[in-house]
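Data card: per-record layout.
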Amino acid sequence: MAIITKPLTSLSSRCINAERTAVFLDFDGTLVEFAERPDLVQLSPVTKSTLGQIHEALGGALAVITGRDIEDVDRFLKPLHLPVAGVHGLIRRNTDGSVYSPPLDGRAISEINARLQQFVSSSQGLLFERKSGSVALHYRARPDLENECTEAMDNAVHGLESIHLVRGKMVIEAKADTSDKGGAIRDFLSEPPFAGRTPFFAGDDVTDEDAFAVVNSRQGISVKVGPGQTLARYRANSTPEFLDWLRCVGDDLESAQAVEQS
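The structure for this 262-residue chain is written out next.
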């Protein structure tokens, strides 16, 4: 059955219930707008404050689900210390700070790194990023090299059976596991304070589609940020539009909490 994606403006910010909703949010393209380099994105103080509001109101049932390393997300969120699933679900830190990750084939990742070095060094504008259990080839500054980057990565992973390729916006990544964002959300929903709650997830990329599928199967709320075919039930036209809506969620939750305590 075809998915009918409605505009986010048709979804009330009061749909997030403090007792019954678990909120999951992508980072790049959702909480921050894209920049030429991943390290140049900016998380606004207003967005950081909103995340703190929602995290507190939901009793901790808010997590970031991202392709970035957990430590990288922490740097942007500081002083907030949220549950995070990093590297597309490969590594996950739960509410009590415990970190889960599968055994990783570091030799395969090192081999990919070696195989790609010459291509990256000879192609101006590309960015090669080494993460925990993965390597990512970014071509944000050179979209004209998309085909060449895809071919180079395909060649670099040839013969390495433990490696899974992930394609996103202006990036192709080789990851030492088949984990995905949908699996990370399932894992969070099996633990407190997420267990027993209905999931909400917002993301912008093709790597978020697995998460949309899981959220839809749990009768949750899925939001696509930006253009593109999607399984999500709702769509925000841009990152600023989604962040404005999310700010309303934080304000509504805080107001409801104040009424209860009065």
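Known properties of this structure: The chain has a mean pLDDT of 92. The radius of gyration is 19 Å.

See the next section for split statistics.
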